[in-house]
Amino acid sequence: MPDRPEALDLVLEPEDNERLRSVCGDLDQHLRQVERRLGIEINNRGNSFRLLGQPDAIAVGRDVLQGLYQASAEESLSPARVHLFLQDSGVDALGDEGAEVPESAIKTRRGLIRPRGPNQARYLHRILTHDINFGIGPAGTGKTYLAVACAVDALEGDSIRRILLVRPAVEAGERLGFLPGDLAQKIDPYLRPLYDALYEMLGFERVHKLIERNVIEVAPLAYMRGRTLNEAFVILDEAQNTTTEQMKMFLTRLGFGSTAVITGDVTQIDLPRGQKSGLREASDVLREVEGIGFTFFNARDVVRHALVQRVVQAYDLYDRRTGEGDGTHG
Predict the structure, then answer these.
(1) Could you give the CA distance from residue 307 to residue 311 in angstroms, rounded to a whole number?
(2) What is 190-204 written as a DSSP string?
(3) CB 172 within 8 A of CB 330
(4) Residue environment code for 77-113, b if the CB has 16+ CB neighbours within 10 A, otherwise e
(5) How far is CA 312 from the centre of its chain?
(6) I want to staple 133 with a disulfide (CB 3.0 to 4.6 A). Which of 28, 68, 189, 293 is the partner?
(7) Packing angle, helices 244-251 and 278-285, rounded to 10
(8) What is the mean pLDDT of residues 49-70?
């Protein structure tokens, strides 16, 4: 039987009506957002708030409101910003089995990159401590972004000599043969999320200079066959679209002093019907292999627009209801 709800009183100081309006949102939409996410009730009069709910949840709610009020001194808060505060609050750890989340952060020229929430923290820690890592989960959970951040950090720290960005040449409904250029040029547009992360962390001009010098290499997965990758940080993105043979080939390319991060979403498989995803199989075959890290993300880890999280949850629920959780919907 759950504990009886408790009350927690909170006063936000110094009292500032403009900041309070920013924290509460239009028609108190920000407070309602916090209530829904934490399963608590929030009542307020001026800068005095009362939170009602389970002790651990209202404690998180107090921290979120205090953080939002502090941030409101420098910015106008939006629902998206509130969503990110909730992600950072550790709300998803409520009810967890007390697993310790190691603190890690990546320093880039554009600032410090910190994980949002305990699952991202575990993922980041595993990348820093394992030579092969899998990040599996829906879009918007930071899988690719954090992998690129780790690659940039390793390059800047001279622990690797190059970064390789790899992706299978399979997309939802598209036929690459109709696109101009060779295979590398055809796949280039599909690597845009990786490029965008690099531009943000290193700057546009430096990224292109590093590409010209082959310090950063962009390659279709097919180009990996026969290579041995030493002192490299290799990111295989959209790995759900690899076949079993391609995944095995990629994993066996890893050489000395190298790190590989494989990211993908097994609910977004674009392979021909009946062909098994190499990512799905790898998660079954390799999960117990020492030295390989697996992090599984879910809808709660989405750090994009709050509606993205609801979309992911709706599809998950639909798959469970219909028994079609085979990862074929795009």
Answers:
(1) 6
(2) GGHHHHHHHHHHH-H
(3) yes
(4) beeebbbebbbbbbbbbeeeeeeebeebebeeeeeeb
(5) 14
(6) 293
(7) 60
(8) 89
Report angle CA 299, 300, 302 to the nearest 5 degrees: 70
Taking phi over 0 as left and psi of -120 to 50 as alpha, with beta for the rest, 53 belongs to left
Is the per-residue pLDDT at 248 higher than 90? yes
**Amino acid present at 211:** I
Q: pLDDT tens digits for 159-175?
A: 899 999 998 875 534 44
- Residue 287, both tokens: 């999960």
**pTM of the entire predicted model:** 0.64
SS3 259: strand
Sorted by sequence, the CB contacts under 8 Å of residue 115 that are 6+ apart come out as 104, 105, 121, 123, 124, 142, 146
Mean pLDDT score, 198-221: 90
Q: Angle of helix 17-24 relative to helix 55-71, nearest 10 degrees? A: 130
DSSP codes, 165-233: EEE-S--SS--GGGSSS-HHHHHGGGGHHHHHHHHHHH-HHHHHHHHHTTSEEEEEGGGGTT--B-SEE
Asked whether 160 and 231 are in contact (CB, 8 A), the reply is: yes
The dihedral built from the CA positions of residue 125, 101, 325 and 315, taken in this order, carries a sign that is: negative
CA–CA gap between residue 271 and residue 277 (Å, rounded): 7
Q: Point out which residues pair with 45 in neighbouring strands.
A: 48
User: What's at 268, amino acid-wise?
Assistant: Q
